[in-house]
Please model this.
Amino acid sequence: MTLRRLRAEIAHRMAGGLALLVLVIAVVWVLARAVGLFGATANISLFLIVTLNGLTLAGLYFIVASGFTLIFGLMRVVNMAHGSLYLLGGYIGLRLVQNHLNYWLALALAALAIGVIGLVMQQVFLRWNQGQDLRQALITIAISVVLADQMIPYFGAAAVAINAPGGLNSSVRFGLGDVRYPTVRLVVLGLAVLIGVSLWYAIQHTRFGMIIRAGVDDRAMTSALGVNVQVVFGVTFFIGALLAGLGGVLGGTMIALAPGQDASFLLSSLVVVIVGGMGSLAGALVGALALGLVDQLSGVYLPAGYTNFSILLTFALLVFVLAMRPTGLFGRR
Amino acid sequence: MKRRRFPPPLGVGRVGAVQSWRWLKRLGLAGILLVVLLVPQLFSTFFASTIGVQSLVLGIAAASIIFLNAIVGMVSLAQTALYGIAAYTVAKLAVEQGVDPWMAALVAVLITVVVALMFGAVASRSEGIYFLMITLASAVIAYYFFSQVTTFGSHEGINGVVPPALLGKPFVDPTGMYYAALICSVLIYLLIWYLRRTPFGYALQGVRDEPVRMRALGFNVPLLRTAAFGFGAFMAAIAGVLLVWYNSNISPGAIDLTRTIDLLTIAVIGGLRRLEGAWIGALLFTIVQTYSPKYTDRFETLIGLVFLAVILASPGGLAGILGGVDRWVRRRIGEVGTATVAPGQRQP
Model:
C-alpha cells in the first residue's frame, strides 16, 4: 500500500513538474517571439495589446464564471442556463440602451432583471429537487434550450454590439510606442477587479459570507444551527444570475452579442471552474486568467499555420489540470 | 405512505388474465418488430429514409449515453463529439484519400475508441456532475476545433461522402441503409444485454452503485470507467459512421451544442435507465423534428419544453412510463404482488 501511495505521489509530482515545464516553455516562447527571436519580428506593442486583450477577456470571464462557481459551490447546482442568462442579459441591456436609457442604468437594470429571472428559475424549478444534482443540471439544460431558441425571433440572428457611452468610446494612449487601447475594455477589467474584491470581501468578512462559507462546507449543519438555508440559496442564486447578466451587458459592449455566444460563455464558465476548482473564487480568478491569456496569446503566437488550432490549447489546459488535480487547482475534496 | 393493496388470490379467471396479458404483450412486441423489419416495404421512401434511418442512427448514439448512465452511472455529453470524430475520419479518408468505405469505417471506429480511451483516462477520475461538465466542455471544444481547422473544411465541413455500394443511395432507395442501421442497432442491443451479465458488466454496475466499496474490494475503478467510456465511444463511432454515410456530409453544425443537447433530449425522453428507450426517444424526436415545421418554426423550444416536462414529471422517460403501465396492469390482474419489488432495489 505504501509503495502504491509512493508511486501515486511520484506520478503526481511528475505531472505537476511537467505542467510547470510546459508553462515555462510557453511563456519563454511567447516572450522570445515578442522580442524577435525564432524568426519573428520584434513587436512589443503587439505583445502589449494581445496581453491586454487576454487580461480584459479574463476579466469578463471572471465576472461570468464567478456567478457560476458561487451557485455551484453553495448549492451543487450546475447552472447550464448560465450562458443563456449571459446572452439574455446582454440583449436586455441592448434594448434598454437602444431606447436611449443611460448606459450605466441599463447595465444595472439588465443585471437586476437577470437576477430576478434566475431567482424565479431557482424557486420554481430547482428548489423542490435539491440534492438531485443530475436532475437539476438537466432542468437547467432544458431551460437554456428554450431561452436560446426564444431569443432568436426577438433579437435576431445577426451579431449586434451595445453602444458604449461617449466617454468610453475613445481609446487610451500608452507612453510606449504608438499603442492605443479601447477604454471600454479597460473599464471592464476594472469592474472585474472591483467585483472580485467585493465578492472576496463579502465572502470573507461579512455575516452573509460567513453563512455561505459554512453552507459550502456543511449544508445540513448550517441549517441545523438555525440559518434559513432556503433564503441563503435564493439570494446566492440571485447574485450568481445577476453576475451573468452583468457580464452579458459588458460582453455585449466589449465584443458583441449573437446566438452561439451562450454556448461559448457556458464553455468558458465550465473551463474556468473546472480548471480553478469548483466553488472557489480564487480558482475562478486563476482559471479566468489562464483561459483568457491562452485564448488571446495562442491566436497570435502559435507558429504560423497552426493558429487555428488554438482551441486545442484550451483543451490541453483542461486536460493538464485534470490530470494533475481532478478537482481543479483550488478545488477541495 | 400509500396503502398497499394485497393482490387477490390467484383464481382460475386470474390466471387467464395473467396469461392473456402476457400474450398481448408478446403479440404487441412481435407486431412492432415485424413493422420495424418491414419499414422499407410498408412505408414511403421519404418515411423510411428520414424517419427510419435517422431514428435508428440517433438511437444508437443515444444508446451510448444510456449505456454509460444505466450501467456505469456516468452521464457523458461527449458522445456527439465522439461520433463527430468518427464521421470526420470517414469523410476525410473516403473523400480525400479515396480509401474504401468499409476500411475507412473501421479506421474511424478505431481512432474514435483510442481518442476516447485517452480522454477517458483523464476524465474518469472525476465522477457525477463533474464528469458531465468535463465531457460537455470537451464536446464544445471539439465543435470549435472542427469549425476552425481548415483541414477539416472549417464551417463548410466535408461533402460528398459515398456509402459502400452494398448500401445503395440513401435518398433514392433507403433499404440498404435502413437494414444496415437496423442490424447495427440489434447487435449493439444484444451486445449490451450480454455485457451486463458478464463479470465485467457486474463490475461496472458495482462501480455505478458503490465506487468506494469497489475500490476497497481491489477493483481499479478509474480503469473500469475508462473501459466503459471506450465501449460507449465504440457505439457512438458506429452511429457517426452511419450518420456520415446517410447524410453524405459532415459539418460542425452536426456536432454543436444544440445537437449535443438534442441527443441528451432523446436519451432523457426515452428514459435514461433503459436501453430500448434510446430508440423510442429517437423515433419520437425524429417524428417531431420532421413534422413540427408545419405547425411551428420554433422546433427547439418545443423540444426543450418536452424535455423539461419529462424531467419534471417522469425521470424514467417513456420507457419508464411503459414499464409503469405494465406494472400497473400486472398488479391489477394480480400477477405481481407488491413484494416483487425487493426493498432497496433501484427504481427507475
About this structure: Chain B has one domain: 40-332.
